Amino acid sequence: MRVCTFNVNSIRSRLEIVQNLVKEYNIDVLCMQEIKVENEKFPLIDGDFECVIHGQKKLHGVATCSRYPIEKYEKGFDGELSEPRFIYTLINSVHIINIMHLLVIITEIGLSIKSIFIINFSSG
Asked: Does residue 36 form part of some domain?
C-alpha cells in the first residue's frame, strides 16, 4: 500500500498537481492537510478514491482518500470539531492518523496541548 501525505494549502488551487501525483506515483492512500474547503465542495481526486473529509471554508481542513475501502473513521478531537485538523482512518487493517499540526488551545479551564510522535521503523 503506497501512502502519501501532502500539505496542499488549498485543494482547489492544487487539484491538478494532486491528480498528477496520484497517477504518476500510483498512490493508494492520500492524506491531505490545509484543504481549505467545505466538505460538500471537496473536488473529485480520482474516481477510484473514497474520501473522508473534515473541512471548512478558507481555513485548515484535512482529507484522507483511499483506493481501498475505509473500514472505520473518526473526525476531530472530542469537543474540537469546529477546528478540522484531525482524521483517523482504518484502511486495509492499517491505522492512519492524518493531523494538520500541533494544537495549543487555551480555554477558561486551562491549556490543552495535542501533539504527535511518529516512529520511523522498517520491517527489515
From this structure: yes
Pairing of strands 103-107, 94-99: unpaired
pTM over 0.85: no
Structural domain of residue 14, as residue ranges? 3-114
Instruction: Identify which of 47, 86, 79, 82 has the alpha carbon closest to the alpha carbon of residue 64.
Output: 86
Please answer whether residues 41 and 11 qualify as being in contact, where contact means their C-beta atoms are separated by less than 8 angstroms: no
Q: Is 79 a member of any domain?
A: yes
Give pLDDT tens digits along the chain (124 positions): 899 988 898 999 999 999 999 999 999 999 999 999 999 999 999 889 999 999 988 888 899 999 999 999 998 876 665 678 889 999 988 888 888 765 555 556 665 555 555 544 444 4
Q: Do the domain assignments include residue 124?
A: no
Q: Which of 50, 118, 54, 111 is nearest to 83 (CA)?
A: 54
